[in-house]
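Whether sequence alone determines local backbone shape is best considered at the level of individual chains. In the encoding step, the backbone of a single protein was reduced to a row of integers, each denoting a local shape. For completeness, the protein is quoted in full, as a sequence line and a line of structure tokens.
***
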Amino acid sequence: MSYVKAAAYCGLLVVLTLHTAAAEEGKPEAAAAQQQQGQPSTASVECYESIKDSTNLAKVENANPKFGYPNVKCSPTTGAVLWYGDPYTDTVPMGEMPKFGDETDGDFAQAVIRPRMKHFKTTMQCSGCHPSADQASAPPNEPRQLQMHQDIVSDATKLQHGRGAIWCLDCHNTANRDTLVDRRKKEVSFDESQKLCGSCHGDTYSKWRTGLHGKRTGEWKVGGKKRWWTCTECHNPHTVQVRRFNPVKPELPPDLPRGMSSNEISSKHE
């Protein structure tokens, strides 16, 4: 076999091998082509960020084309997000935040969040079953058993958020069910739960605004782009008396660099 023929034959084997490997990983050829061009492609892998089955995030390969990182690395043991290669996937600007003229004004210059409405379990908005109505025709705001939503609240007569002092329609807008209302009846988007929660939980809201409560990731510098987690991404408001926060099982520490021992790390910090 001539040198040219041998080279062509080896090249064909390489192509076939790569094609077979891509098929075995379940990646369509279009996705592989996108990766070669530096474009992100979505894989059929999901992991959750803070609440299982509520804050699920699809893994996107090559979301950070500069380094070839995916947007997230999923934990093989818990199914939770283990590491972010691109924390800004599927985020939008947080929007205008109230200014109080003190240290709680925070670093919102380039704050981004993941919108909540599009990630609800149902594709139908609340107004699909609850059309808009004026306050006069709205149902009375008193605890009663609901015919629907048992998957959210098993017994609506025993809703204990606020130690029994409030009920569903204290937070859900009776005139527009696609929005919420704070305790002053000001309309609030589902994507801005911090504005509703903060109207009652003032101390925690102040800490959240200054970055002392909750989670943020992104650029450290002041004015840098940061991903902020809103209240309902970590806390389920319907189960606060049962479970205020779902802790994520801790992972084992990462492997140390080759040749380095734990004793060496300890001595460096003494």
Observations:
- The beta strands are 41-48, 56-61, 72-74, 81-84, 92-93, 111-113, 180-181, 187-188, 216-218, 226-228.
- The first strand starts at residue 41 and ends at 48.
